[in-house]
Amino acid sequence: MSLIVLLLLPFIGSCLAAVLPHNARNAESLLAGLVALIGTVQVAMLYPQIAHGGVIREEFMWLPSLGLNFVLRMDGFAWLFSMLVLGIGTLVSLYARYYMSPDDPVPRFFAFFLAFMGAMLGLVISGNLIQIVFFWELTSLFSFLLIGYWHHRSDARRGAYMALMVTGAGGLCLLAGVMILGHVVGSYDLDKVLAAGDLIRAHALYPVLLPLILIGALSKSAQFPFHFWLPHAMAAPTPVSAYLHSATMVKAGVFLLARLWPSLSGSEEWFYIVSGAGACTLLLGAYCAMFQNDLKGLLAYSTISHLGLITLLLGLNSSLAAVAAVFHILNHATFKASLFMAAGIIDHESGTRDIRKLSGLIKLVPYTATLAMVASASMAGVPLLNGFLSKEMFFAETVFINATAWVETSLPIVATIAGMFSVAYSLRFTVDVFFGPTATDLPHTPHEPPRWMRAPVELLVFTCLLVGIFPAQIVGPLLAAAALPVVGGELPEYSLAIWHGLNAPMIMSLIAMSGGILLYLLLRKQFKLGRFKYPPLVGRFNGKRLFERSLVVMMRLARRVERRLGTKRLQMQLFLMVLAAVLAGLIPMLHSTLTWGDRPKIPGSIVFVTLWLLAIACALGAAWQAKYHRLAALTMVSVCGLMTCVTFVWFSAPDLALTQLAVEVVTTVLILLGLRWLPRRIEEVSPLPSSLRKARIRRLRDLLLSIAVGAGMALLSYAMLTRQTPNHISSFYL
Fold first, then answer.
1. Which residues fall within 8 angstroms of residue 350, CB to CB, at 6 or more apart?
2. I want to staple 135 with a disulfide (CB 3.0 to 4.6 A). Which of 53, 122, 189, 664 is the partner?
């Protein structure tokens, strides 16, 4: 299948889903599942072409004059993400068939779902920087629609708005950074950008473009300090959370970091910004996850933490760390999607996601409980599961990093503490929910979900087990193919063995496991009693509250500016417009090299000077008479127009003179008609001294602006007219 057909398939499916009947849940889910499944099979069949560093490329003419063509490009890394987007999309389509209520507008859900799938697929297989930004913004738009799907709920509307504002603002920064990056490289083509790493890092604009691109990537992946939007996006239906917030949308940021890793990494700026944001997010997200009482809230903060882990790995400027990041992207997508689906099953069957109310569910839903516990163990990094392998690689990179002394000391400590927190919140997800006395005050009596609703969870958990037990055989070739483009075409040496001996990373894992269990036991009673409404120490630093207060401040400022500028007085509007025009013309002139020309001057004429002295006197008289005698003012303005006609004739331009004369006649007649219908002037009473003073100040201000405009245009005209005339009229005007 052509890449363009693969890209169009989800969008075509979205249009079809939108027109299906409201009560056609089976048809909707079948359509979405088939679209995703066909795409998955087709992408899987492309593996032989990209397995050993191959690249599939399709290019279509778009704007060749600007160096922009519509390029679709699939290498091993794009292939891996395409499999995640389409493969997990297939499983979520099946899961959503049983999760969504018959009363929900299901056609709208699957239309948005497939459109988002197409946008995400376009993002990962785009071969042009501008194209990447286009699909990047599309993912923000469709995620806004999916998060706010239950728009009758205020939390869904607020969460969708927050996600759109944060990721949309980041997208604008990304666009600016990409434009500068394309300027530095001389092309927006991704292949040329990836091959120009040394040129980019050595360029003077690198410190400018790097933060702009990183703001876009970090805001999309909910990295510190933009992490606050993701927990509030949990108001979306669980299939949305399982798809967008574990496997696809929030992975877009780390995808971009890995995609541009060969071009942008390797500098101190990259190390401190990316690894610094990743370390803060890793620790903060894991800490906050422990104190969440909502199942999806816990998973949201754990997602933030794991994305921080991936970001930290990509920031270490190590090719082996980049391989570990790619590996954890794959592992996190599998165990986190299964956990979100398991949380959705618990909510669907029991009627609540409150961990404080849930207890002893292993007796009521034993099969689902087993699946959730295995996935949670993978999230905690338990051996023989896929999460353990990538976390071991992460620990190894923090131990063997070659950096300054304080970084070498602090990084393993941060990694170990974050590992302890991950074990603690994983135990909250399993022990608090599935063990203990059976809950009796639930809205519904839980029971096992329909067989096919559980099937996606089973498949993902089975994948976690297979990769954890047979990593080299199951995922080894896929990881090599996906990591090869990220590290620039030469893989470092690494091992996917389960056991590497009792080394420093293994000791860190043991400390994290035992420390996490101890931490959970110390806090378990407080967790059950619900004493932690907010995480201690950081509860006051509420990102949502700061975001909403910032919006309030901006709205108040906007209203204040509107009251200042949005006047109904024509004179003030004209003053502001002319002032803006003067500034727009003056600022570039301050940095220009425009000087007087050396063109020979035409001898002066006393007649011509006299004519224009008369015109100037009439202009001043019109301004003075406008208040007292309108007809006299119009007559004086007409004299100015007549002097302009005479000037055109004087300089041998009779065509312009005739045109100006016709315009003057028509304008004068029209203004005379306007004067005929204007009301009579009302005699004003004597103004107060303060009002008179303000009026004089206003008139003086207007006079000064008028003089500035007239003098500026005169000087600019004189500078141009005294220069030699170019051969081409376009050059003259330029």
1. 358, 361, 439, 442, 443, 444, 445, 446
2. 122
Q: What H or E segment, with its residue span, contains residue 238?
A: helix 238-244
Instruction: Please give the pLDDT value at position 328.
Output: 94
Number of DSSP helices (H) and strands (E) in the chain, helices first? 32, 2
What proportion of the chain, given as a percentage, has pLDDT over 90? 56
Rounded to the nearest 5 percent, the helix, strand and coil shares of the chain are: 75, 5, 25
* Rounded-to-integer distance, Cα 625 and Cα 30, Å: 79
Six-digit token string for 412:
């393993």
CA neighbours within 13 Å on the CB side: how many for 190?
30
User: How confident is residue 196, by pLDDT bands cut at 50, 70 and 90?
Assistant: very high
For position 544, what pLDDT does the model report? 74
Separation between Cα atoms, residue 79 and residue 50, nearest integer Å? 8
Q: What is the pLDDT of residues 558-584, one digit of tens each?
A: 888 887 777 777 788 888 889 999 998
Residues whose CB is less than 8 angstroms from the CB of residue 79 and which lie 6 or more positions away in sequence, other chains included: 43, 46, 47, 50, 481, 482
Task: Taking the CA atoms of 599, 603, 604 and 605 in sequence, report the sign of the dihedral they define.
Answer: negative
**Distance from C-alpha of 623 to C-alpha of 493, rounded to nearest angstrom:** 83
Could you tell me the two tokens for 194?
Answer: 């990836």
The CA distances from residue 195 to 170, 182, 198, 483, 638, in Å, are 25, 13, 8, 16, 66
d(C-alpha 87, C-alpha 82), whole Å:
8
Q: How much is the average pLDDT of 362-377?
A: 93
When pLDDT is averaged across residues 286-290 and rounded to a whole number, the result is: 92
Report whether 323 contacts 487 (CB < 8 A). Answer: yes
CA within 13 Å, CB half, 621: 17
Alpha helices in 271-318 (DSSP H): 276-290, 295-314
Residue 268 has, within 13 A of its CA and on its CB side, a CA count of 3
Q: How far apart are CA 480 and CA 150, in angstroms?
A: 41
Three-class DSSP category at 68: strand
Angle at 536 between CA 532 and CA 540, to 5 degrees: 105
CB 425 within 8 A of CB 298: yes
Concatenated DSSP letters of 633-680: HHHHHHHHHHHHHHHHHHTT-HHHHHHHHHHHHHHHHHHHHHHHHSPP
pTM of the model: 0.82
Dist CA 234 CA 239 (whole Å): 11
